[in-house]
Records
---
Amino acid sequence: MTVSALFSNVEACVFDAYGTLLDVNAAAERCRDDLGDSAGPLAELWRAKQLQYTWLSSLMGKHRDFYDITARGLDYAMESLGLNDAALRTKLMELYEVLDAYPEVLDMLSALKGAGMKTAILSNGTPGMLNTAVEAAGIGANLDKVISIEDAGIYKPAPSVYQLAVDQLGVAAENVCFVSSNGWDATGAAAFGFQVAWVNRAGLVQEKLDFPPKTELKDLTGLAQLVIT
């Protein structure tokens, strides 16, 4: 863990969902019997195109919701890998709606709620996708809000998306700890004014922009200790 500054006066913890609380590789892993050696490449390309399509749709001013974006990313990945299987596509999309939570998530959220901290998800996912995912992961009781970018009509890292958390939680930006496994999302949140924890699960290099996270973590295990005072 690398800590560049201490958290202070945190009143709420706001989490990205996909890749931060929920394992985005879980759908492909559950289909490993069908995919074989293509499971890893499919998961990686699917995620890459999914994110690229959110940025493209935002920049083009042609918004499509995250379910549609996710399906298009999967179509690109399957075609790229020569996978022409409609039943498998349906199975993967169904599994994406019930992704596994990382093993430390429930205990971490419980610790935050036990300390009186406000908690929320702020995600690219549609309200329907998020409600299904939260229920499947069993974490809803430990969340005050589940916020979708659909309320802003544009994807992260647009500032108007981060503003949703401020407005819906009633907490000033400087009193929010925003947590994401995506370096670009961590950078966008820091630029907005949140105190940011980057969950660097993949051991990546930090983004080379002017808005670094306050903290870099390998997973979410130690987060509560950092923000609870």
---
Amino acid sequence: MASTPTAAPREAALAALKASDRKLARLIHATKSDDPTAWRSSRPVGDAFSVLVASIIGQQISGFAARAIAGRLQERFGGRMPSPAELLTLDPAALKTVGLSRMKIDYLRSLAEHIISGEFAIDRLHELADDQVREQITAIKGLGRWTADMFLLINLERPDILPIGDLGIRSAVQRLYQLDHLPSPSEVDAIGEKWRPNRSLASFYLWAWNRQMTAVRPKGARPMVSR
């Protein structure tokens, strides 16, 4: 796992981002803090399996509901997330009692089965290139590009990750470039090419700026992005 950048490399990365894109440079100057530490603290932490289990549990539900379901699952294993083998010892009916849908139970079991069979090299993800990590994660039913990108960015702390499917990133790019539409993931990818090899830092600033701009939007004003 990559370590958190020291002050000198971070300043160099910021300088490179500002030089690559004048609009992004203005965003960086206008943003109070990118605060990657606070963002990381809001994401699931722990071993890779536990993180991916939490990611599956949290799909399409509130953070409060996800934490409640994860807590009930952990209670069955002494307050911790189960191992892949332990997860498979629970039949689907038992998993349903903690609040999991049938679809999420299927996803969790698929994840555990892929690890036990050796198809998913979960203990070697930190050794793999970014695209290899994406390939490994997205091969699991229920885990897509967004989950893979967030795992790379937050859990492996890779320096050049742009979560192109994230709504916050897409909203920030729309606002930054004054687009008349919410950009597609492929459009965000094309726009972000100029930010290589520091797209992770750019992502943190885009998130922070988007939150900052949303917070100051006048009451009653129409949102720039439709839901």
---
Amino acid sequence: MNVASNNPVGAELKQEIKRVIVDACELAIAPESIGDDDLLIGSESALGLDSLDALQAAVALSKRFGRRIHDGNHARRVMRSVNTLAEFIEGR
């Protein structure tokens, strides 16, 4: 059975991505407070995620959605925002 067939799509997918990130990084915020285009990582991120948080989130997202996020440039591109993560998970 394909893991992707159990995955939500669209708005549901984005909400699930936010929930996974909040849980994995133990953030004290509501998942809904994360905007779809908000920067997730780096000094300009409202979430203040560092490289360790990014790694924890990447592992949790990979486990949940069955898509491996690679190191380096790939991770920075894919994990830029909830929208870029959704596109990656949907295979776009």
